[in-house]
Write the structure tokens for this entry.
Amino acid sequence: MPCPEVTPLSVRRARPDGSAGSPQRRVLDPRAGRSQAGGMSPLSVPHWYVCPSARFWNCPPAPDGARAFHASLPGYAPTPLTELPALARGLGVGRLFAKDESARLGLPAFKALGATWAVHRLLEEHAGGGPVTLVTATDGNHGRAVARTARLRGQRAHVFVSRGVHPAAVAAVAGEGARVTTVDGPYDEAVRAARAAAGAPGTLLVQDSGQPGYERVPGWIVEGYATLFAETDEQLARAGAAPPDLVAVPAGVGSLAQAAVVHYRSPREGRRPPVLLTAEPEAAPCVLTSLRHGEPRTVPTGETAMAGLNCGTPSLLAWPYLRDGIDAAVAVDDAAGAAAARDLAAHGVPAGPCGAAPLAGLRAALGAAARPGLDLAPDATVVLLSTEGAEANPGYSPA
Ligand SMILES: Cc1ncc(COP(=O)(O)O)c(C=O)c1O
């Protein structure tokens, strides 16, 4: 465990080789604008986590393959990396960019990167085995991506949709030709229902959350997300920007955050590793809660406009990467998310609620008390992953 000690005030820097004495975990409440030292138990402050030594942890890179596969798909094009100078000034950082996933392989979210690569790998293995039904659970975007991929590959899909997903988003999954079963329960329950249904002959489970004994497919999904980060590297270089000092990632079960860890924590010659900040809804902070406790935790989930992030349990495949490689995590409420969505839209990034969460999270993280824990210089380059467009969440209006 990288951060065995909770030390609210004194954070010692780890050495770049990660060999520094004891890594430290720092817990602040950015909304309170001060660190929670003294009488208060750090774990009683639910909104913030920082572990500066995590940026010096490293792991092997993602295997090759997904990027070339995506580039071979009809309609593939890198999504835009939009620079946001006015917002950068407001936040007091050097250069700010949003990776805009509002139109990815014909869908309004990044999820097709994982679904297409995982389904490709599964069907390769299954070649000659006859038609299949691809089964998954979703809170919106992943299910639509699996349904679309199944249709394009001439296969069937059965998608279990959790409670709280907007009817228009459910209709969009059905519109891909999938059979849809709505589950009157939270996302975790939809995952259980999909898993049970995938026991039937002729079915293949395509879930983006790993559990013991079910790791290969979510592993391929995470590999698929690597394309987004490779594009970002190239686009930053073309913009004459430095490699990122901070990357803000929205987290549901944490598979996208796992892909961020794999990308930015694998050895990179002479580059200072960025801070990786996860942003979650206050209604479902499973990654933040798990990081604060040092072990995977299930949290009760509530209602949030950030439907794609409304997950109660982190992926157990992602967990070791999140534990060791994520150095900051924050939870934000829907009002902060809506304000971020409005600001991104005003600057040309049509973010849906999950896509706006990183900006909301960054704002909380850059609050006066939190910034020192992040060790971010005023000329820092920051990347926000705007993982869905407004169209992904048709019922949502941040106005
Ligand atoms: C738009 C969007 N952003 C981010 C995420 C979070 O991804 P993960 O569940 O891998 O953490 C999701 C998950 O569904 C999503 O739909």
